[in-house]
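Curious: why this fold?
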Amino acid sequence: MSSGEEDIGYSKKRKLQRACDHCRRKKSDGPQMPNNRCSRCVTRNMDCTYDEVMQVSTIFSGLISHTQSTLSKSYVEGLENRLERVEALLNKVCRQQLSSCALARTNAGRSSASKTPTLEISEALRNMPSISTPYGDTGGQSSDDEHGQGGLTEAYYKRLLSDVPSYRFHGKSSTLVLIHHAMHMKFKLMGPGPAPGEPGYQPIGQYHRHPVCSSLPLVNPVVLILPQKDLLDTLVDAYFREVNNLNPVLHEPSFKRSVLQGLHLRRGGFGAVVLLVCANAGRFVDDPRVLVPGTTELASAGWAWYDKVDRVWLLPVAPVELHDIQIHALMAAFLWSTAAPQAACPVISSGIRLAIDIGANRKMMYSSPPTLEEELYKRAFWCLVAQDWMVAYGLGRPPTIHDEDIDVGLPMECDDEYWLDDLGKPSFKQPDGKPSKITAFNCYIRLSQILLFAVRTIYAVTKVRMQATRADPNWEQRVVAELDSSLNKWVDSLPAHLRWDPERTDTVFLTQSGLLFAHYYHSQIAVHRPFMSPTTNGAPRSFPSHIICMNAARSALHVLDMVHQRTGKIPYTCVGHVTMAGTVLMINIWMERMSDRRIAGSSRDLVSVQKCVELLDHLKHVYVILCPRVQHPDHLRLDMISARAAEIIR
């Protein structure tokens, strides 16, 4: 039996190497006799003991003299027993570690078979956060579907809360799950309770209808300040043309049909959605009526409608409805385009929490195929997640939700006009050979997933980095290499209509392709930026990372400049990409001046910086929106880089 298979408390019987106490300094056959009793003690009928102190001669290398030390028998045996227990524990831990490594390799093999690019994390990086199973690839079964251990399924919710218009999601650890099992056992032992109309019958969900929990109107339709009919139609068209193609929160046909039917005048929640659509679209409409009344400042476009919702909006007490999540997604999109983008963080976080409240992040809560409302839930949820992950990197803050907390699939790649069939029933059938506009959004989420992994590893807090360094001193180089590999796989997985082609005739796909590649180069800079910072003498920490950042910055500006030349505009969400690329190029120029040597490509960087200034000047009125309630709005976020670039050029 090996030492790893023995019980921890088991101690081997050691072979004695010395004479007993009575036979000390005499020849003794005790070690060869049964029970270690020497023949002399057996003959004399004496106890054969080994308790006296022995002299140990310890010889140290390089020393001539000997040092005599005394060790008791009990002390030596205690040390040997402790050593044996440690060996047994180490063997047990090693067996568990080998099992976990095998499991990690198995999961990595499963993930590599998926179309979604994932990161293959080496064994040395086991302590770092890893990319979870691709969304929707759960083998057709949610992890919470098992009876006795899983959460409550949608069918049970609809049965339990049949009198309630909505429901909330509860996972495995919820107390309601335990209550459900107790009720199930009671039903088996005692049978069903009183039927409706019988004494003692208590309708399930009656306490949910308390007035304080009723669905209160988010915005009173009586006090709505809606734009005029012609301006409202123009704003709605501008929203779906400029915003929804990149941030698909809404379904265009059903939204326009609801507006035409006047639903926004009867339901406050939908009225707030309409106001936020007008607010987001105001920056794309050249009409003085979109400005804040009493001002001619173009940067105030749309703020009056947003301010109306912001003043009366409250977190819902009643179960969450679709409009609640859509309002958060639209508010966050508006705030992220203001001079105070950090204001979008709490809105995004509360929106995701509301979505989690109804299980929008769980596959088990959706039908197959989904209904129109369920697909809108999924769209709004993923829009919030995409914003959350971008804010996490853009502001250097922890994300609200991690990818391992999500197992729902990505939005269906079907354009809005193909959601319903001729009979008005959901079909979600995209015509063969016609690319979908939603594909770009799904690709954007997959790329943001890689960026999120970089945020949680390269930009992790010191505690996590120290743990990874103890496991593998070279973990940063390994993570960067794996991130580069994942980015390359992402580019290779792009469909033909989203690959970069400046001669593409379809302006929608050209704009989407430009956004994706700008985000791709932005992610490359994010991966290598920590290693390009200059040292005291002006040289970069890592020349390969420095070169990658420079090339990515130039490529991003080139792509966005081509989109601007072809369409006369660039995606409004790319202002951060332009700012990052221009800043990286400016750092390159300053590093050249600090080191008093010529860096390859620095002369053409001046031309690229000039392009950056022009792009930022174009985005200045689209992106930076003034807040009337702020006395000193921050204009410097975009103007700072423009002024700095102009100073360098001079």
Summary: The longest strand covers residues 54-58.
